[in-house]
Amino acid sequence: MSGWDTPAPPAPPAPDQGGQRSYWSQQADPVGPGRLIRRGWRLYRSAPSRFVLIAAITGSLQTLLAIPSLVSAARFAQGMFDAMTDYFGRVLADPEAYRYADQQALQAELEARLRDVQLPGTDLAALTAVGAGLGAAIGLIGVAALSAMALSVAASRPIPMTFAFRLVAARAGLVKPIVALGLGWMAVSWLTLALQSSPDVAAWAGAAGSPRSVLIGSLLSVLAVVVVVGFVVLAIRWALFVPAVLVEALGVGPGLSRAAQLTRGIRIRLALAMAGLLILQALVVTVLATVVGFAVGFSAGSFALGLAAYLAVGLVINLLWAPWLPATLAVAYRDRTLPPEQTAEPTLAPGAKAD
């Protein structure tokens, strides 16, 4: 397939080996989380321009689709600021009147204004939901294309960028879940916004702080924890789904089964490697973007410019970071499916320049 090394079936295990499912042995599992991350970085570094171009295309499209969400967030922040400023301005203008006023009524008034601020307009809510679904689908397409590029570079036969996207489109085992997840995310986003703006739902949930609202909030928090834990577990179990479908041309069901087979015995190490990359990314983005945002904002005396600088730096770092995880998972896939002599990543010759 386009010069890739098709995984050969492992040699039949001896009766006393317990049925090994990969070329790794119980005595020599070479990949710890740190080493796996470093090998993914070396693979990324061997052809950075190819990876960054794919990440830039999909990231730019996601940014455009996120504009309605950014507008909604900006309106929310401005509305919160205006509501709090107006409330405290009235309190400071006539403190005696508010000192002896009904505190519960004042609190209810403030909460009502804040709730009104949280409700986006119908048109903006629809655009936000559509943008969220399309953005999620494009992000998944980008991950798959980066994985295709990583597999080809690891095989020392880099493919053109356009072929990486064409290969993803040709794999029904990838297209179907990407479309389903995109539509699902769009539906969840729209349902969430619709429930927030529904007066009937607000009346049924009760006022903030009431026993019913506290119970509903607690149940939703527990449900959120369960969903997040389930998502993390499945993401680790099927971490090698994309490389398996790309290389072996599998459908959705066989691809999930193959991914679960390949990650068996290494899921903790994969989880640590994935978590390490994501946590490090969050720290780098937060620190650098915050420093640059504050520096620009204070020097220009403008909150808007500082926020713009923060978002721009965060976007650039995320785009540059995006190929690292697919490259790391491509390394893990090759280690699980190819003999050791075929799994060395390409390296730069002394004095050579990266692509």
CA distance, first residue to last residue:
23 Å
Number of strands: 0
Order of helices and strands: HHHHHHHHHHHHHHH
Overall 3D form: elongated
Please state the CA-atom Rg, rounded to the nearest Å: 25 Å
What is the count of DSSP helices, taking H or I runs of 4+ residues?
A: 15
Helix content: over 70%
The SS-based structural class is: mainly alpha
Strand content: under 5%
Tell me the major beta sheet. Answer: none
Give the uncertain stretches in residue-range form.
10-28, 345-354
| Average pLDDT over all residues | 80
Summarize the structure.
With 355 residues, the protein is an all-alpha fold.
Give structural notes.
The chain has 355 residues and is mainly α. Helices cover 76% and strands 0% of the residues. It is elongated. It starts with 32 loop residues before the first helix and ends in an 18-residue tail after the last helix. Mean pLDDT is 80; it is low at 10-28 and 345-354.
